[in-house]
Specification:
By secondary structure, the protein is an alpha+beta fold. It has helices spanning 11-15, 40-51, 84-91, 93-104, 106-116, 135-150, 161-168, 187-200, 270-274, 319-328, 372-389, 411-426; strands spanning 28-36, 56-59, 75-76, 123-124, 128-132, 157-159, 175-179, 183-185, 204-206, 211-217, 220-225, 230-238, 255-256, 259-265, 282-285, 292-295, 301-305, 337-344, 347-348, 354-359, 362-366. The strands form 4 sheets. Strands 1, 2, 9, 10, 11, 12, 20 and 21 form an 8-stranded mixed β-sheet that branches. The structure holds flavin-adenine dinucleotide.
């Protein structure tokens, strides 16, 4: 398998505050809980455990935020792929309602953590707009807005084509809806600040410490890093998401982890900036292979979406995003692209995030479905409570068995087929 694309070429690595010092693991140490993976999920778990007085050690293969958490679009969007009514139908009225509250509050979790810990994270919170690209998309957004509004989300509303055009700055959508809970963060700054506050609360985080073995010995979990150093703990939590390797048998084959691609322009002049998302909303659309875009605090325009399933070969692998950006906003035509990067998202067979407990004391969280800024921050808090108390009610989703996707070895061909099919269905810009 090709090496994953590095973090450094991203806009976020160029504009985030420096990474906190997270020295590699040395020796053989003991803890209550060992966490593998320093993304939002792992670090939120560590922060919330440390705040309870638990001795927690996080082991990260590279540096905090190196995975999806430092590369994403920075759009903080509550909810899941499924609408509230669907979730209540799938999980029953009681568990379903709790899940709806959990995912509905996931954006609050991020902004509350930033405020509570006075994190140095550039942010905006002006709402998320989902543009409808077809009549079918219009039905989706209408239903979605009504369902959240009926659950008390003030300001969740359907948008006419004219309002959508005005708020996004393009006439390419037939309408949309706005979710006032959404917003944006500089994602790597948020990841690095989460690391800083988790360490301030008492967690230890070790970077450049890839875990090569995780095994049970004498009723404990021993996580051994490639260098031979180890952590022995009562419990282990694995949060490796799209960068999951062979550490936990079968886990990698339960998901597909394609890259999502992004480009960012140079900072826009004021008059061009004012013509795109003038009120600082963030946005994505109703396509199966959705496009997501926004302006950041430096006034760069950032466009994200699908790309080749393989790791990129060169700048041409981002060309389609540049084309789509100028179809939406012709004023971007001669504006140079300054950054091109990508990162892995994970898709599960049922489009839900998965929690597994393959053996006693080993908790696994995987399957962000490309919407993990809020979700994984909130999931980490829930996992910390579960690990500390043993109460499964703390978890928003049931613990499910790990099941390999059928024909996982063929997933590249499978994904290429799905992408081609969705592109055809999505039509228009795609
Ligand atoms: C390009 C892109 C755009 C996205 N846009 C958005 C968006 O706008 N909004 C949104 O909500 N979500 C978005 N997402 C999804 C979001 O980024 C993820 O859901 C979230 O960051 C996942 O967090 P995590 O902690 O689960 O995993 P990650 O942040 O991926 O962290 C996993 C970590 O595990 C480490 N690791 C793996 N194996 C080992 C090992 N053996 N030992 C030690 N460490 C290991 C990796 O190095 C990595 O740092 C996007 C994702 C990508 C890639």
């Amino acid at each position: 398998m090709a090496e994953p694309f590095p973090l450094e070429p991203s806009l976020w690595a160029a504009t985030a505050p420096p990474a906190p010092v997270t020295p590699p693991l040395e020796g053989n140490i003991a803890a209550d809980v060992v966490v593998v993976g320093a993304g939002y999920a792992g670090m939120s778990t560590a922060l919330h455990l440390a705040e309870r007085g638990t001795r927690v050690v996080v082991l990260e293969a590279h540096e905090p935020g190196w995975g999806g958490s430092g590369r994403n679009g920075g759009q903080v969007i509550p909810g899941l792929k499924y609408d509230p009514d669907e979730l209540e139908e799938m999980f029953g009225p009681e568990r379903g309602r709790k899940l709806v509250d959990f995912v509905g509050g996931s954006a609050d979790t991020v902004f509350d953590l930033i405020e509570k810990h006075t994190m140095n994270v550039p942010l905006q919170r002006k709402g998320w707009i989902q543009g409808a690209h077809t009549e079918a998309g219009l039905d989706i957004v209408k239903k979605r807005a009504a369902q959240w509004a009926s659950r008390g989300v003030d300001g969740a509303r359907e948008l006419s084509a004219q309002d959508t055009g005005h708020l996004i700055g393009t006439d390419k959508y037939l309408g949309g809806w706005v979710d006032p809970r959404g917003g944006a963060v500089q994602p790597l700054a948020y990841a690095r600040e989460l690391a800083r506050v988790a360490m301030a609360a008492g967690a230890a985080i070790h970077g450049e410490s890839p875990v090569s073995k995780l095994e049970r010995a004498g009723g404990k979990w021993v996580a051994t890093a490639l260098c031979g150093a180890s952590v022995t703990a009562d419990r282990a939590v694995v949060c490796t998401n799209g960068y999951t390797g062979e550490l936990v048998p079968t886990l990698r084959t339960t998901v597909i982890a394609p890259n999502s691609f992004q480009v960012a322009t140079i900072p826009l002049s004021d008059n061009i900036a004012r013509s795109i998302l003038p009120e600082w909303h963030v946005t994505s659309d109703t396509r199966q292979l959705l496009f997501y875009f926004r302006r950041d605090h430096t006034n760069r325009f950032i466009m994200g979406g699908r790309g080749p399933f393989r790791e990129p070969n060169g700048p041409q692998d981002w060309d389609h995003l540049e084309r789509i950006a100028t179809k939406l906003f012709p004023q971007l035509k001669d504006i140079p692209i300054e950054f091109r990067w990508c990162g892995r998202v994970t898709l599960t067979r049922d489009f839900l995030p998965h929690l597994h407990e393959p053996e006693p004391g080993l908790l696994v969280d995987i399957g962000c479905m490309g919407r993990g800024v809020g979700l994984q921050s909130a999931m980490g808090r829930a996992m910390a409570e579960y690990v500390a108390t043993g109460n499964t009610d703390a978890l928003p989703l049931p613990l499910v068995p790990m099941k390999a996707l059928p024909f996982h070895a063929l997933h590249r061909a499978y994904m290429a087929g799905i992408i081609a099919w969705y592109r055809m269905q999505d039509g228009g810009l795609a």
